Amino acid sequence: MLGAALLRSVPLLAGLALTGCSLLSIKSPEIPLTPREQEARLLTRDYAAHFASTITHLIDDAVPGDADPAIRSQALRLKLGAVTEITRASTGLSPIGSLLDTWAFAQQLSDFLLTGAGADLLGSAQAQVRLGVTRLADEADTLAQKVSGSDYSRYHSFVLGYTQHNPIESADCARPSVLSEWIVAQSDTRPLRAVGTVAQALGDVSDRVRIYSERVPSMSLWEAELALDRAGFTDASYRSALRNMDAQLERISKLADTSPELVHEAIAEFHDSLHSSTDRLDASWRQTLRTLRVEREALAANVAAERESVVAAFDAQRAQVSTDAAQIAARAVDTSWRELHKLVREALLLMILLTLVMLGLPFGAGYVVGRRRGRSAGTVDRL
């Protein structure tokens, strides 16, 4: 009978299991970025692209090619430093951290050109560039106010303190880390989140690779131009070398008509001059190649690091999902066994009660019949 009860309980258990399947779901432990954080990342990088394009056109328009070589050199350094720093600031892992970094740099650059060490950096072109950079700083403040919402006053206080304590000192735009300052200022009580789903992480890496692929070529060319400028190669030196070559060629032509014996001497001098110019050009070209190689290696290292971080995050999440699935399965098995034990106990109890009823019923019926027969016999005797 116990075996039959167990067989009858199997369909019930199967129904319970099938019903419970719809209530079981395996959720990934990943924490997605909030809508505000996603908006901050998107708008910050869009503003950084606008900033890089604007500062490039501002400097190119304000400092023409025939300007003072010292001014052009400073303008080139400022353009390279500003675009490099805004790109680095806007492509951080934390959306809110990137917003603070970009916002702070825009304000720092404005202070640098207005009242800081770069107030006279560009000479007569200073006013035009200063006006454009001030507008960019105002746009950054407007963007931060739109994205941060109720946290604007706290973020603004931090950015204001950071820019006051860390002014830009040169056209290279070097400055300390904003995130380090944030950790110190907030005592790590309000961490800037950098987590997200796997899809969000992959999208972030793809976006950063696109940004670097768009800006690294121009930055490499500016770096090469700056290296040539530091090596002493300017437009004036090239024009002077070409004029010397033309003069020597004209001299050789005249000597060939009047004194052929002196042509060999002039050719030798021309060869020496050409060899010297070639050596300087080779040195500059090697410097340019080294600069391009360094930039390419830096980009490759950045992409590799991002890929490793994404893979590591995905592996950690996959391991956590497997652990959660194992725990859920174990709890489901334990629950099923407990329900089965309860069902078996109830079935046994019902069988025992049924057995008692079936065994006790004949005795009770015989007892009732015997009493009735005894009463009938007593009545007949009295009559």
Short description:
It contains 10 helices and no strands. It has 383 residues and is mainly α. The radius of gyration is 42 Å and the shape is elongated.
Q: Secondary-structure blueprint of this entry?
A:
Elements: H1 2-21, H2 35-62, H3 69-90, H4 95-114, H5 126-148, H6 152-165, H7 178-186, H8 198-230, H9 235-258, H10 260-382
Helix pairs in contact: 1-10, 2-3, 2-4, 2-5, 3-4, 3-8, 4-5, 4-6, 8-10, 9-10
Molecular structure report:
There is one protein chain. With 383 residues, the chain is an all-alpha fold. Helix content is 83%, strand content 0%. The chain has helices at residues 2-21, 35-62, 69-90, 95-114, 126-148, 152-165, 178-186, 198-230, 235-258, 260-382. The longest helix has 123 residues, at 260-382.
Tag the structure with descriptive keywords.
single chain; 383 residues; mainly alpha; 10 helices
Order of H and E elements:
HHHHHHHHHH
Number of strands: 0
Overall 3D form? elongated
Q: What profile does the largest beta sheet have?
A: none
Distance between the termini: 53 Å
Number of helices: 10
Structural category is mainly alpha
What integer is the average pLDDT? 76
**Rg, Å, rounded:** 42 Å
Quaternary form: single chain
The level of helicity is over 70%
Q: List the uncertain runs.
A: 1-7, 9-29
Strand content: under 5%
